[in-house]
Amino acid sequence: MKQLLVFIKKEFYHVFRDRRTLLIMFGLPIVQIILFGFALSSEVKNIHLVIADYSKDVKSQKLINKIMTSEYLLVEQVNLNYQEIEQEFKRGEVKGALIIPVNFSSDLLHSGKSQIQVITDGSDPNISKTITNYLTAIIVDFQQQEALSDQVPALLSIQPEVRMLFNEEGNGSLNFIPGVMALILMIICTALTSVSVVKEKEMGTMEVLLVSPFKPVFVLIAKAIPYLLLSLANFTLILLLAVFVLDVEVRGSLLLLYLESTLFIITCLSLGLLISNVTNSQQTALLISLMGMMLPTLIFTGFIMPLENMPKIFQVISNFIPSRWYYLAVKSVMLKGLGFSYVWKETLVLTGMTVGLLSIALKKFKVRL
Amino acid sequence: MDQEKVIICKNLTKRFGDFTAVNEISFDITKGEIFGFLGANGAGKTTAMRILCGLSFPTSGEATVAGYDVYKQQEQIKKNIGYMSQKFSLYENLTILENIEFFGGVYGLERKEIKRRTEKLIDTLGLQKEAKKMVGELPLGWKQKLAFSVAIFHQPKIVFLDEPTGGVDPVTRRQFWDMIYEAAASGITIFVTTHYMDEAEYCNRISVMVDGKVEALDSPRNLKEKHQVTTMDEVFYLLARGAKRSDN
């Protein structure tokens, strides 16, 4: 036990003296959080929109005012004709146009029906859809108000009342926080652990350790424990960034969140140890753990691209990616505030993977000079 | 010198499938002896050394190291031996003191004892100024000497040196051998492999392995007389040229 402590102390020396490792360890989460939180936001804000108001009366003005208060749309109210609107689209600045016809108000008043044209830049389908959704929502809202204040009959007697469960404010950060957690823990645990073991092989110190009375299995444990602790510190950092910088609320039990994370970290460490046992150079280890782990984690975890949209075969493959299960567990616990009874399946899968990976790693651990 | 045998090998054999890496080798090594273990690459030296270090099991034959059986008491063997290889084996980004502390700790020495021995060692090596420097900053010769000191830090009965002076300049090599003599005089048995024949001359006794067998085993002087040559170089050449195996 004392030998183990000596070893762990040594590992900490290694980590804290290696600036590059430290930078990767604690710089990565910060960069990722900022990137995903601010730069790669999936919600679209400040879309340029032009409005051509041919009606020019109180009603149309009311509608336009309503649209202008939206923080998502940047309205440039210019009265352009069709050709000019087309030119604007071609120049690319403007992503959407709303055209209110001359007889908008009178039609509405007399027949209770009126048409409005929404044109969007279809070359960017995501933004197109977003604009359509925003405008539709605003117009429906407008109708309701008008129906109350005037005698205009409400077209829709059924009002859809939309709620985004677990994320009422529509905070876009929510979804990717568990994803970033999975990604970072995966990269750091797997890559750093594998490199640190292979380094000993390259330096020749592994031989000395194997010849010493220190049990080979203890070498693996001693390597894993510092990274487990560092990863937990890292996880805490991500959590703090999420809560204080991105206003994400932790709904579920913090303890359960930490337990799930510890389990996932152990899974990753096992993977790292396995990689280090089958490779002999730091480069190979790093390449396998970065390329081999990062891409699958990004794709198959489901936080960037929804898994449901993938071909069946990819969905099957995703079951073998540990981060996918961790992501689900974190989402349930952190965002939905669910208890263990809802994440037992994920926990079981991760435990199974860990046991599997660890036993292969131990088996592959060669005791040789 | 008492005649206590610290390594005894009897018909030690190791096979990998059809390949016999070590073929019925037998020798005894006395306490405090400097035993040169020579052989061309691929002759089976490393395999034999692995068995004696408690890292692999022989296929047949018997061997005891420091009185412990290589089949049953590997753990005990490991506690009683030191090891140093050609590949430099200290941590470059730890200081000299931290390295000593670490390896002392791995061998289960008490903290107080580590401190006491460290002070003595630093004194002997004259490294007071460098003690808190990173090992990576030391010249190679110093590193090798330090590595040797660390290998015998826990006062093992036997120390295995696997080509310890590879890539070291002649002056440092000479100093290194002075350290080996000192260790041997204090009762530590030295088991050393080398490709430098001048170093072979420094050994008390030498074994030359060819194709998994021990072809010759005697003092350098007797070997030279027996083959009627003047240098160990020639002895080695005469014995090893018949080898069928080479580096694979």
Automatic annotation (TrEMBL), chain A:
One of its GO terms (cellular component) is plasma membrane. Gene3D superfamilies: abc type-2 transporter like domain. It is found in: Cell membrane. The chain crosses the membrane at residues 21-40, 176-198, 218-246, 252-274, 286-305, 342-362. Keywords: Cell membrane, Membrane, Transmembrane, Transmembrane helix, Transport. Residues 142-368 form the ABC transmembrane type-2 domain. The keyword Cell membrane applies. It is a multi-pass membrane protein. GO terms for molecular function: ABC-type transporter activity. Pfam families: ABC2_membrane_3 (PF12698). InterPro entries: ABC-2_transporter_component, ABC2_TM, ABC2_TM_bact-type. Belongs to the ABC-2 integral membrane protein family. This is ABC-2 type transport system permease protein. It comes from Olivibacter domesticus.
TrEMBL record, chain B:
Pfam families: ABC_tran (PF00005). This is ABC-2 type transport system ATP-binding protein. SUPFAM superfamilies: P-loop containing nucleoside triphosphate hydrolases (SSF52540). Coiled coil: none annotated. It comes from Olivibacter domesticus. Residues 7-236 form the ABC transporter domain. Keywords: ATP-binding, Nucleotide-binding. One of its GO terms (molecular function) is ATP hydrolysis activity. InterPro entries: AAA+_ATPase, ABC_transporter-like_ATP-bd, P-loop_NTPase. Gene3D superfamilies: P-loop containing nucleotide triphosphate hydrolases (3.40.50.300).
